[in-house]
């Protein structure tokens, strides 16, 4: 019998969900495809995410090798985040999800028009 909470380590979908799951991780990754961003820039671009949650999500993405954190010894401190090579490998996955989302939105709009005409 598998230890509870460890099943994801042997299931490819579980691994992906473990790394990418959560409300903000995909949005963070999507924004980082634009290039290096500082913490406050990223928070502003995401809108609605608290500093605590953003820090937690970035830490988890860093632990999973998706994001790298670059700290500069300056006053005031400057920290930049960017995607690692592993993080960049997610681009086709997120592009496919974005395409699906656009198709789904178009489908919903078509269904609303048909419903209104009925």
Number of domains: 1
Per CATH, the superfamily is Winged helix-like DNA-binding domain superfamily/Winged helix DNA-binding domain
The class by helix and strand makeup works out as mainly alpha
Radius of gyration: 18 Å
Q: What's the CATH topology label?
A: Arc Repressor Mutant, subunit A
The CATH top-level class label: Mainly Alpha
Distance between the termini: 54 Å
How many strands?
3
**Helix amount:** 55-70%
Proper CATH architecture = Orthogonal Bundle
Instruction: Give the averaged pLDDT, no decimals.
Output: 86
How is the main sheet built? 3 strands, antiparallel
Principal-axis shape equals globular
**Tally of alpha and pi helices:** 6
Beta strand %: 5-15%
Low-confidence parts, pLDDT < 50 over ≥5 residues? Answer: none
Summed up:
The protein contains 6 helices and 3 strands. With 118 residues, the protein is mainly alpha-helical.
Please tell me about this protein's structure.
This protein is mainly alpha-helical and 118 residues long. The chain has a single domain, classed as Arc Repressor Mutant, subunit A (Orthogonal Bundle). 58% of the residues lie in helices and 12% in strands. The chain has 6 helices and 3 strands, in the order ααβααββαα. It has helices at 12-20, 25-32, 39-46, 51-63, 85-88, 91-117, and strands at residues 37-38, 67-72, 78-83. A 3-stranded antiparallel sheet has the order 1-3-2. A hairpin with a 5-residue loop joins strand 2 (67-72) and strand 3 (78-83). The longest helix is centred in the C-terminal third of the chain and has 27 residues, at 91-117. The model has no long low-confidence stretch (mean pLDDT 86).
